[in-house]
Amino acid sequence: MNEIIAEFVDYLLNTKNYSTHTATAYETDIRDFIHFFTRFDDGIKLNDVACADTFAFRGWLADRAKRELTHKSTARALSSLRTFYKWLSRYKNIQNDAIGLISSPKVERKLSKAIEPTDISDMHGAIRAIDNNEPWVAARDWALVVLIFGCGLRISEALSLKNRDVMNTPDSLRIVGKGNKERIVPVLPAVNTAIKKYMELNPFGVRDIDPLFRSVRGLPMSPRMAEKVVENLRHYLQLPDYVTPHALRHTFATALLAGGADLRSLQELLGHASLSTTQLYTKVNMTEIMDAYKHAHPMADTDD
Question: Which domains are seen in the chain, by residue range?
Answer without folding.
Answer: 2-101 (1.10.150.130), 117-278 (1.10.443.10)
